[in-house]
Amino acid sequence: MDCKKALDEANDDYEKAVDILRQRGEIKAAKKSAERETKDGLVYSYIHSNYKAGAMISLLCETDFVAKTDDFKKLAHELAMQIVAMNPEYLTPDKIPAEVLEREKSVYREQLLAEGKKEEMLEKIMEGKLNKFYAEVCLLKQQYIKDDAKTIESLINEMIVKTGEKIEIGKFVRFQI
Fold it and tell me: Residues 6 or more apart from 12 whose CB is under 8 A from it?
């Protein structure tokens, strides 16, 4: 029924209907994330084929039923590979220490002033630069290494929609020689 409603809403435009369904799925995922508690999950490790880098991640969900599924284990594997490949420092932007954020803002401000940018444009340009910074250093904001049309956050939201459970990353660590 959801598909039919989305097609009706999109005037039988298949691509538009898919976008509508994806948006609804992310809204449902956000509601689930806000209301529920993750009490189960798994710890997953990944070692790169050259044995020079590896990652360990705790991926959390609501039940052991979901934690034991192949899809959940695959998500943990993909996330661990992402950590090895992209070396994120933080999970989300709100986990970045204030002094690090202020240092970045200061550098951006000086760069923009040196380029002769007008004061009224600084905030808007800095916001864009900060979003790019978040995409580099925050795992959930990074582009997925196997599909740059997705972020890690949207990858997790797809799994939330698929399983019907809240899923979140507890902790992660990356090792490199």
Answer: none
Q: What pLDDT score does 79 carry?
A: 98
Provide the pairing of β-strand 53-61 with 40-47.
Answer: antiparallel
User: Can you say how many angstroms the Cα of residue 97 is from the centroid of all Cα atoms in its chain?
Assistant: 19
pLDDT (0 to 100) of residue 34: 59
- The DSSP code sequence of 93-106 is GGGS-HHHHHHHHH
State how far the Cα of 142 lies from the Cα of 151, in Å rounded to an integer: 5
44 residue type, one letter? Y
Q: Using CA of residue 14, residue 18, residue 19, residue 20, what is the dihedral sign? A: positive
pLDDT in tens, 2-33: 777 777 887 888 787 777 777 776 556 555 55
Structure tokens at 140: 């959930």
pLDDT number for residue 154: 94
CB atoms within 10 A of CB 165: 20
Task: Report the alpha-carbon distance of residue 25 to residue 161 in Å, rounded.
Answer: 6
Tokens of 44: 């997953």
Distances (CA, A) of 18 to 7, 13, 25, 116, 126: 8, 9, 10, 44, 33
CB 111 within 8 A of CB 130: no
